[in-house]
Design brief:
Helix content is about 30%, strand content about 30%. It has 12 helices and 22 strands. The radius of gyration is 22 Å and the shape is globular. It starts with a helix and ends with a strand.
Length: about 400
């Protein structure tokens, strides 16, 4: 992990991101993620890190960039990783707490009305109530870069907290999601070097939407997703993968896809689902009643889940798959990897901003790898796109 921390610190010290603004970075890493623990993957990642560091060092070192104070204060300031801006998570919920601390850090930096250039300002941390001094090199507030280095669960915790923050605070952040997990469908690239090059090549900060699941049960939800939010068989696969991951390390999702084809109908009754889809103006696009095996809604089209299963292979962001026989499930399950399932009569796709649904029986929902059971009292439930809330990096050529 020391090699990873040192490499990321070197890349961030030379990043081309917002060169006119002071920059602080924090790497939130799950040390148990497959990108670190699976030997073949780490060997590939180590080679990619070496290449990216060499590329970074060919550029001038920034004098207005450094690790966040949240990272520096980990372990009382004695952490060898913290001084390089890296914090290791210690279990579920820790990434959420770290992100809350980073938001508090950003909140505490408030320039005076007559903010001169340069100007030393007081910086207080809520954890230690001490004042740290540093110099801002221009009148803009620092840009806080959060790099997630784990699976979809780590990213989900970070992004959920950020989505709940005030817009003025979100504007001080940008997120980079590295593919260090097992599936990495929610990462900003499928390969580590491609993601890291977003820090080294010309990029722009853009905002992306999230997905929100609300239920009819007071206090249950809302639940957020930032890649795909779905209900049905695939949520069952996710649920069982999470439940058994300690006993079945590695990518057990593929195994549970095979098992689910046989078991799902025995554990969950697949009944008719009423679905009503609306556009961004609230105008109805389609409504139907079908026996639904699964329904997946993406933040956009061209998205995958379950280790790159291309459930949404084109511009459309909603895919509904009808119930089918066991033999048909076995025959078609491989098509989801290539996205050719959309050519089969059991599948139909469309675009929508809001999808309301009502089921006859309990059904699992999954939000970027986290699951919840929905029952009759939760219906109707609604999956909807939010306004753009998450600041991410995009190549300038894609502006």
């Amino acid at each position: 992990m020391a090699v990873f921390a040192a490499s990321l610190a070197e890349i961030c010290s030379h990043t081309a991101l917002a060169p006119e603004r002071p920059l602080t970075w924090t790497v939130i890493a799950n040390p148990h993620a497959g990108g670190f623990t699976i030997g073949s993957r780490w060997k590939r990642h180590e080679a990619q890190l070496t290449a990216c560091v060499a590329k970074a060092q060919a550029r001038p070192r920034r004098d207005n960039a450094g690790p966040s104070h949240t990272a520096l204060e980990i372990d009382g300031g004695q952490s060898r990783l913290g001084i390089r801006g890296l914090i290791l998570t210690n279990g579920p919920g820790h990434a959420r707490k770290l992100t809350e601390a980073l938001i508090n850090e950003a909140r505490s930096i408030t320039p005076p009305p007559d903010f001169p250039v340069p100007h030393s300002i007081g910086y207080s941390t809520s954890s230690h109530h001490q004042t740290l001094r540093f110099t801002l090199l221009n009148p803009q507030l620092p840009l806080h870069l959060i790099i997630t280095a784990g699976g979809d669960g780590t990213s989900l915790e970070v992004l959920t907290v950020l989505a709940d923050a005030a817009p003025t605070l979100r504007a001080r952040f940008v997120i980079l999601r590295l593919p260090m997990g097992t599936g990495n469908d929610g990462a900003d690239a499928w390969e580590l070097d491609t993601a890291l090059n977003l820090l080294l090549d010309p990029t722009t900060i853009a905002y992306t939407s999230a997905l929100r699941l609300t239920t009819s049960t007071p206090g249950k939800g809302p639940f957020m997703a930032f890649n795909i939010l779905s209900v049905g068989l695939d949520a069952f696969v996710t649920h069982m993968t999470n439940k058994m991951k300690r006993n079945l390390p590695g990518d057990s999702y593929k195994l549970w896809v095979d098992i689910a084809a046989i078991l799902y109908d025995r554990l969950f009754k697949v009944g008719q689902m009423e679905v009503r889809a609306l556009d961004e103006r609230g105008v109805e696009l389609t409504s139907f009643k079908e026996t639904v095996l699964l329904m997946a809604v993406g933040v956009s089209g061209h998205r995958s889940y379950g280790s790159h299963k291309r459930i949404l292979p084109d511009d459309r962001n909603v895919c509904v798959v009808k119930q089918m026989s066991l033999g048909r499930k076995i025959a078609l399950k491989g098509l989801f990897t290539t996205g050719t399932h959309i050519d089969k009569p059991e599948s139909f796709l469309f675009n929508a901003n809001r999808v309301a649904f009502r089921g006859q029986h309990p059904i699992l929902a999954q939000m970027d790898g986290e699951t919840v059971l929905l029952g009759p009292a939760d219906f109707p439930a609604v999956i909807e796109l939010t306004e753009p809330v998450i600041p991410i990096l995009k190549p300038q050529s894609l502006r």
